[in-house]
Amino acid sequence: MEGQEHQSKSRVVKVDSLESWNFHVNQATTRGNPIVAHFSASWCMPSVAMNPFFEELASDFQDVSFLSVDVDEVKNSPNQRVAWIKADNTCRIDK
User: Fold this and answer.
1) Which residues form the Thioredoxin domain (predicted)?
2) Which of 2, 40, 86, 89 is the most buried (most CB within 10 A)?
3) What are 18-37's pLDDT values in tens digits?
4) 85: which residues sit within 8 A by CB, 6+ positions away?
5) Distance separating alpha carbons of residues 20 and 14, to the nearest angstrom
């Protein structure tokens, strides 16, 4: 319809658990797709400001898997946080 903007489905996958993270990382690895992960929090304005840019990148690079993790929505223990880091050795926490 004229005057209405067409919105496509997001290519960014929202990850809400370690199991979901492992599934999507394994799927991308099997397909040979690079992975770009955005770890964010709703209270962190720079990460919120990055969301539209991240969506645009996902639209532009169809052969890349884009994963988004809201660190506050993924409730887990410190031991599970370590598992997130060990799940993919490319993920590191800078201290």
Assistant:
1) 16-80
2) 40
3) 888 889 999 999 999 999 99
4) 91, 92, 93
5) 9
